[in-house]
Specification:
- Chain B: This is ABC transporter, ATP-binding protein.
- The complex is a heterodimer.
- By secondary structure, chain A is mostly helical.
- Helices cover about 75% and strands about 0% of the residues of chain A.
- The longest helix of chain A has about 30 residues.
- Chain B is elongated.
- The chains are: A mainly alpha, B alpha/beta.
- Chains A and B meet through helix 1 and helix 5 of A and helix 2 and helix 3 of B.
């Protein structure tokens, strides 16, 4: 009755997109200010004292990582907040009591949240281009595909976060104490060449390393990891997470008594 | 055509608490069906099973033949729900909330906009269409809940305490809207604490208690289960100890109070001529009579106070023990409402 192309699915997706587009001060201003500060402090002020990494200026080196940081943070936050807020105020009952399939509902939350992540990623790239001109993308297809996959993956994880959270504090914990440390230790601000021993091994276990390096490969043509394998793993992980999202909706986890 | 709702042996437990305990119920298509029960009887749990907000732990439930789990999309598409609690999207003006809700049911946007305007006009809050839900008054919020249930043009409209806490004027407005809808063919399932509402609106009423059906009948059939009071006023005060000896098997009791003789009988209007004849024969001088019919409220209180609340008990008379009415659901306690007769108060 409701495929992902149905009126119902389109309506819920549109509703989710309008929710963040109509609040530009909340959606776009914080990442704008944060990334202007990142590029100013880490790129311009500190970057002037740091030698090139992998043959590219430091400010350019951190650009892909900051794009990833913004994209995944926003994709995760959008999905988790929208679902949790809907649960908290019970208006998620509006789609839940409608003839939307569980797959359709997950599609809508994930697609809209991934879109927000990608929009923020592009915004950060534009801010970066203002500070350090990147004349062309080294591998544009990789840049686009990696950004698309990681935004979808984190939107899918955000759905889980929104269903599992019992309080607003839980969302903060997920974002600030799990996501952010993984990103910061995911090679946003440094190359894995700078690490050795246990720190290097731990980095290879951090999924963020593969995401940051994938986008960096697409933008700058440099990477600490084999990008095709990384892309394969990320796509597989995304499929698993989306399947888990649908299963949780079907089970009514966090949604029904 | 399958009935609007059919549930058989429906069960829902919350750990040790049995909210629905083998509920059997059939709501015919096109009917105006009332669901009465004390707080915690399982009314809201039952409704939430139908719309997918509560997962049943046993039994079967279907809406127009669509199983609520296996054919959940068909079941949910047929239902328009106005729940007891306000659960409205606060991010958008109410007009857009309705457009979204219609869209979720597959209504294209242009038609959804027309339906939204129509629904808001029908409940009388069209001029508030660009306002968010939080900015509406309490009465307008209640009207909006009905508009949201209507915007999908449902075959089954479920109203869970739609008039709880609203003033008399609004209550009558809402009654008019839902009566019109029923006349147009929409099946209505109404839960209410107001007996007057059930008596006035419903074709049939189910009384449930402790998650089980106590009885299903028309309001008239239910009131006939109770006893009426025939009061015969005499010319002068009577001796309280000189209770007339009235010979009629339909009479349950006779008492004297001042100048009035009160006769309890299964059908007071039928027994009245014989009573008057007997009284006049015994020398009394009746000057006026008054017949007070049993209210649905009295029958309701009687039925829900009995033993374990099963249908058999209701028919057989029960054991008179109080009902514990345990349930995992949370319902608004309207016991202190001043307007209308309130079951919650009466059944405590």
């Amino acid at each position: 009755m409701s495929s992902v192309f149905s009126t119902g699915t389109k309506t819920l997706t549109k509703r989710e997109i309008l929710r963040f587009l109509r609040r530009p001060w909340n959606t776009f201003l914080p990442p704008f200010i944060t990334n202007v500060l990142y590029f100013s402090v880490f790129g311009v002020i500190l970057g002037a004292r740091i030698r090139e990494i992998d043959g590219v200026p430091y400010i350019q080196f951190i650009l892909p990582g900051l794009v990833v940081l913004g994209a995944i943070g926003n994709a995760f936050e959008n999905a988790s907040f929208s679902i949790f807020h809907g649960r908290w105020n019970e208006y998620i009952h509006e789609p839940l009591t409608s003839p939307l399939s569980y797959r359709s509902m997950v599609f809508s939350y994930v697609a809209s949240s991934a879109l927000r992540g990608i929009i923020i990623g592009v915004l950060i790239a534009l801010i970066g281009a203002f500070f350090t001109p990147v004349h062309s993308l080294a591998h544009p297809v990789y840049a686009v595909v990696f950004l698309l996959v990681i935004a979808t993956l984190f939107a899918g994880l955000g759905v889980i976060g929104g269903l599992v959270a019992e309080d607003f504090d839980h969302l903060t914990v997920l974002n600030q104490f799990i996501l952010r440390p993984l990103v910061f230790f995911g090679g946003v601000f440094y190359s894995l060449d700078a690490l050795s021993g246990a720190a290097l091994t731990a980095s290879y276990l951090n999924p963020m390393v593969y995401m940051v390096n994938g986008v960096r490969y697409g933008v700058l043509g440099v990477s600490d990891i084999p990008v095709n394998e990384a892309l394969g793993v990320l796509v597989a992980l995304t499929v698993v997470v989306l399947a888990l999202d649908v299963a949780m909706f079907k089970r009514g986890y966090g949604l029904t008594d | 055509m399958p009935p609007a709702i059919r549930v058989e042996g429906l069960e829902k437990d919350y750990g040790d608490v049995q909210a629905l305990d083998g509920l059997d119920l059939t709501v015919p298509e096109g009917s105006f069906f009332g669901l009465l029960g004390p707080n915690g009887a399982g009314k809201t749990t039952f409704i939430n099973v139908l719309v997918g907000l509560v997962r049943k732990t046993g039994g079967e439930a279907a809406v127009f033949g669509n199983d609520v789990e296996d054919d959940y999309q068909g079941a949910r598409d047929a239902i328009g729900l106005a729940p007891q609690e306000f659960n409205v999207d606060r991010f958008f003006p109410i007009k857009e909330v309705l457009v979204h809700k219609a869209g979720y049911h597959g209504v294209p946007e242009s038609e959804a906009k027309e339906r939204a305007a129509e629904a808001l006009k029908r409940v009388g809050i069209y001029d508030k269409r660009d306002v968010r839900f939080d900015w509406l008054s309490g009465g307008m919020k209640r009207r909006f809940m009905l508009a949201r249930a209507l915007v999908t043009d449902p075959d089954l409209l479920i109203l869970d305490e739609p008039t709880a806490g609203v003033d008399v004027e609004l209550r009558h407005d809402l009654w008019e809207v839902i009566t019109d809808l029923n006349d147009e063919g929409t099946t209505i399932l109404l839960t209410t604490h107001y007996i007057e509402e059930a008596e006035r609106l419903c074709d049939e009423v189910a009384i449930i208690d402790s998650g089980r059906k106590v009885t299903v009948a028309t309001p008239d059939e239910l009131t006939e289960k109770g006893s009426d009071t025939l009061t015969v006023y005499c010319e002068s005060a009577l001796d309280a100890d000189a209770v007339p000896d009235l010979d009629d098997e339909r009479i349950e009791s006779v008492s004297v109070d001042g100048d009035a003789i009160r006769v309890r009988a299964s059908s007071a209007s039928e027994v009245a001529p014989a009573v008057l004849r007997q009284l006049e024969a015994e020398g009394y001088t009746p000057i006026d009579i008054d017949i007070e019919r049993t209210s649905l409220e009295e029958v309701f209180v009687d039925l829900t106070r009995r033993g374990d609340g099963s249908e058999d008990d209701a028919n057989d008379g029960g054991n008179g023990a109080g009902s514990d009415g345990a349930s995992g659901e949370s319902e608004t306690d309207d016991g202190d409402e001043t307007d209308g007769r309130v079951v919650a108060e009466a059944s405590r």
